Amino acid sequence: MQRRISELYGRGHLEALDYQLVAGPGGTQGLEFLARRKSWGPQYLRVGLSLQDDFAGNSQFNAGARLSFTELGRYDAESIWDMQIGASPRIATEYYQPLSLQHRWFLAPHAQADAHDVPEIVGTQPVRIYRVRNFEYGIDLGRELGNWGELRAGVVDSRGSEIVRVGNPVAQLLPWHVQAGYIRLGVDRLDSVNFPRSGKAYAFTLRGEDRSAGMDGADSLTFDWRAAWSSGKNTLVGWVSGGSTIGGSPQPRNEFLLGGFLSLSGVAAHQIVRGN
Fold first, then answer.
1. 30-39: long-range contacts (C-beta < 8 A, 24 or more apart)?
2. Phi, psi of 52 (to 5 degrees)
3. Tens-place pLDDT, residues 182-206
4. Which of 15, 50, 84, 180 is least crowded, fewest Cβ atoms below 10 Å from its Cβ?
């Protein structure tokens, strides 16, 4: 009962959900539930602002918002919309559709369009800056793992273009159009989303691209790991991310970027580029 209570409360629709034993007529006993809906929602808006500057003339600015529509239909589906303007504009949407009241299995169609810069580094200096534009859509089938994780697999259709934005042009870069499949495992046992004091969270994603049409590309493996430890009023949070391409021919669209705030903060944004 406590496990099911935690799962229901974790859906985020209630301010309080609890129960207690009560005495009934004739010496019987039962359960009395206390459930109080949120006084706000079921639509939610979150806004954010990001500004990075290395005090050497290089700055990046992004402003974003997330609009969430929850409690849709019989099974409490959710529709999420992300919008961002600035150095890396982006618009994305996902529709999370549980397949039962228990929320064990779900379908999640999604789509996104984005653009970002990828520098080509020689030594420590960028010689070119590519502008990568991408449009991608697909669908996932997933399995909720209690209130601590999920496993999902999906297919996507991705297409876009790469142009030289700064620097000498190179050989013509053709638009790409690839299909890909991936599998992702995410586990989150942190005790708080925003300010954790204990627990661990990690995610692994394996993605494979279909290059049968002759398009260049590469498969990839990425991971993300976070953990929090506390002693008294002090908390230490560690965060490690990594990835690697696997075979194929890495392109600017699937290279890994390092540098900037919370990503080797002492290095300028996207100053380190690796394709494998």
1. 31/1, 37/13, 38/12, 38/13, 38/14, 39/15
2. -125, 140
3. 999 999 999 888 889 999 999 999 9
4. 15
User: Reduced to 3 states, what is the DSSP secondary structure of residue 152?
Assistant: strand
Query: Domain ranges in the chain?
Result: 1-39, 41-274
DSSP tag of 207: E
Q: What is the CATH number of domain 41-274?
A: 2.40.160.50
Looking at the whole model, is its pTM more than 0.85?
Answer: no
Residue 118's closest CA among 127, 106, 107? 127
Angle at 65 between CA 142 and CA 241, to 5 degrees: 55
Query: How many other C-beta atoms can be found within 10 angstroms of the C-beta atom of residue 27?
Result: 6
Tell me whether the omega of the peptide bond preceding residue 169 falls within 30 degrees of 0, making it cis. no
End-to-end CA distance of the chain: 48
Which residue shows structure tokens 């259709």? 157
Q: What type of residue sits at position 182?
A: Y
Q: What is the distance between the alpha carbons of residues 145 and 11, in angstroms, rounded to a whole number?
A: 13
Tens of pLDDT along 54-88? 777 778 889 999 999 999 999 999 999 999 999 89
Amino acid at 82: D
